[in-house]
Structure formats: structure tokens, C-alpha cells
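Model it.
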Amino acid sequence: MTTLSRIRIGSAPDSWGVWFPEDPGQVPWSRFLDEVADSGYEWIELGPYGYLPSDPAVLTAETQRRGLKVSAGTVFTGLHHGPAVWDKTWAHVSDIAALTQAMGAEHLVVIPSFWRDDKTGEVLEDRTLTPEQWRQLTRQTERLAHEVRERYGLRVVVHPHADTHIDDEQNVTRFLDATDSGLVSLCLDTGHYAYCGGDNVKLIETYGERIGYLHLKQVDPAVLAEVRAQEMPFGPAVARGVMCEPPTGVPAIEPVLAAAQKLGVDLFAIVEQDMYPCPPDKPLPIARRTRSYLRSCGA
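Modeled.
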């Protein structure tokens, strides 16, 4: 078994069914921290801003006493709308970037806005960007990456995501080819890329210098076939169980980790098994099994 010495494993609130800062169906933040540490993880993400304590002193105390460290924060953006949304975007990003920096993390995961509502399925805008919207998306992402690096010392990693404009191989490679490799890297989410028909190992091998961060998850192929046949939005697809516990789905995790190890750089690989909504007692046993499975892969 190859020891994946360059891969740092963690988990996130997402794997505990947390999608929102506040939701009565979600586990309390203190329980998440207790259970993620109990599962054997050392690294976590902040999750939706406001779920974990946003006071750096409080969050530092709570994570340190559990032996946890923060790898990244996450922001949602609609940068294809151009300069008109910059001020609103920056107000959202700056708070999260400040907390991310204060927690000693170095990455900011940037998720594009959805073209259809992830709960209701309402179509919010065209699923295909115009050439001008593509230009704005790439320019404004570079601007955001520059500002975040200059002001907070963080590296922007853009997260291809189902039901967004950066989703499948064509759109991901178009985005990468149009952005500055010195500013913009990719958070490759293995589940979302597979969900959208992409080959994770091929992307790592082809665009290795752009892979700055990993999210590990798998898709249930049978459920995905239903999702595609019914043109189901992402939220209901998750509720149907499209994202499944490793190693029962696709892509196979071992080849992905092996390809990432070959890049010769240190990479976070954060487990994110989308489970919203989910019973509060469901995540912990899955998290323990998943951590054990990843150890068996050398991570």
C-alpha cells in the first residue's frame, strides 16, 4: 500500500447534513465538532458562515481543545453577473475570508451560484452562459482571487458544482483555460465532477498544476441515472441519496488519491458526503467508517 504522504484528510459540516447557518434539523455545531474529532479527523472546513462560531477566539478555543484545525472557508458567488455584484460579493467574502485567515487556514473555496434553486428546482436563469457572461465570470474570479490573496493571504480554489455554470468537463476546462493559473486553482470535488459526467483522474492528470484542493465524495450510479432521467435538481437528488458512502459509489477513490499524490504537492482532501436533510444519529457511524476506509487507502 502506497502511503499518501502529500494528502491531508479532513471532513466538513456537509458530512453531518449541514447546509445552512441555522436550520432546526441540523445537528448543533458543538456536536459536529465532538463527532468529527471522535471520527479521527484532524482537519475541518468552516461550512456555511455562521454555523460554527464566527468569533475567532471562541472557535479557536473550541477547535483546539478537540485537536482540530481549519483547512478552508467557503463562499458562494455569482460573478458572471459582472461588476454590478462586486460590492455585495465582497461584503459576503470579506467576513468569511477574515475568519478563515484568523483560523490559520490558507484556502477559500469559491462555489458558483446555482442556475436553478437547489430546493424548489425553480429555474433562476439560463443554464448556459453567454460569451460576455463567461468573460465576466473569469475576470471577476481573477479579481476576487487577487483581492483575497492580497488582503487575507488566502488562495482561491473554485469548486465545480452540479446545477452551476462550472459543472462538466467542457465548462471546467473552459474556465481553467480562461483564468490565470497564478491566481485561480480548482477545488476538485470528485462527487460533483462524476455527477456531471467528468473523469476525475483524467482531470488531475491533465490539469495537475491547477488542482489546489480536493473534496472526496462518491455518487451512487443507480440513483444518478434516475436523477438524470427525471432532470432532478441537486437538492432533491441529495435527499434521494445520490451521494453515497465510500467505497460503494463512483469514482473509485484510490486512483484519485494516487493521481493526486503523483502531483508532488501537499493537498487537502476533505470528505464531503452531501446528506441534507439527515437524521442526527446517521453521520457519526458513516464518518468513522469513511475515515477507516481512507486509512486503508494509505491516507
